[in-house]
Amino acid sequence: MNYQTDVCIIGAGPGGSLLAYLLAKQNISTILIERSDELGKEFRGEHLNEDGEMILKKHHIFEEIESLGLLRMSRVEYWKDGHVFKTIESELGHAGIHVPQQHLLQSINSQASIHPSYKLMLGTKVTELMQNEKGQYTGIKAQQKGRGEIIVESKIIIGADGRYSTVRKLAHIKNNIHNHGYDLLWAKIPAPANWEPSIKFALVKQQQVALFSQAKSFVQIGWNIKKGSYTSLRKQSVQPFLDQLILAFPQLKESMEQNLHSWKDFILLSVYSSHCDTWVKNGLAIIGDAAHTMTPTGAYGMNAAIMDADVLSQILPNLLSQGSLEAGKLKVFENARRKIVEDLQAQQVVTEDSFMEKFTNSLKIEKENITLY
């Protein structure tokens, strides 16, 4: 089956979905392709910062998400030996917002679906990018469950398909990987009674542990481990590992004992950042993690993808109307976003490298204040 559209977006995560909606709202025919059978599968980077919040409010999406459920975290806390020793209250009224991806994507898709220029294709896996004799990208071939091969002809392809982007690979865009010396173990457990929404940090065996409050009364645990150490770590008993977590955060003892029993209860995230030599080619652009994977530090990833979508949605309509979708024209988008993203990635490195020193200094100052008092 063949389809024709102005824009074909691959990947229905936050960036791709928002871009599809913003283009469809401008009467630009847009097909959004997602390989999964449903929107909003569990996603670990679900925290909005002020930039992401501002964009969602700007496009009147935030209100619907809020009606479905989100959680504002009241503060950031630093813990040592089971006690908080430093608290930072945000001037924004919250220290971050947890937005379940399902709620975010449901809200965007419900508004996008109002527009006849929007079409969502689930269960569809891209297999090939098509080009004309001049090398300009002109569409995609994909396998769709229950229908076999489909072809989507489009004026531009947008790769919003994440850190392992198929579009990036098929377009032969070089992705430069930067390891940060650590990986991350995630787990999610029910929050104890009277748990106040917050972000909590601790040092456990000289590695950062973070707790993030989540909507629907959950706590997300993120534990940094040495890069590449998980293979040997999982050969050991998980219990000493859990005991260290309980010592750091005694409030979680009961929930941990009821919900964390083996390494299978954790999910490993290979942590790295990346930058591509280019984000654009003739008739093609990549956004979000496909163009610039970020580490979990600061929760910039989802927000950066949302910002990419916002900027590109303002640039594409004019280029489409002019028929100017060559790489040189699309560079306007890349130039508008690349330095901002690279500055955020540099900021992540500084934050990661200085965390232990700042944590130790804060603890030292707190002890000195207690002594003086």
Question: What would your notes on this structure say?
Answer:
It is a single chain. With 373 residues, the chain is an alpha+beta fold. The chain has two domains: 2-43 and 100-178 and 273-353, FAD/NAD(P)-binding domain; 47-98 and 181-270, D-Amino Acid Oxidase, Chain A, domain 2, CATH 3.30.9. It is 36% helix and 31% strand. The protein is built from ten helices and 20 strands. The strands form four sheets. Strands 1, 2, 8, 9, 10, 11, 19 and 20 form an eight-stranded mixed beta sheet that branches. Strands 6-5-14-15-16-13-17 form a seven-stranded mixed beta sheet, sandwiched between helices. A three-stranded antiparallel beta sheet has the order 3-7-4. Strand 15 (207-214) and strand 16 (218-226) form a beta hairpin. Helix 3 (62-68) packs across helix 4 (101-112). The chain is elongated. The mean pLDDT is 93.
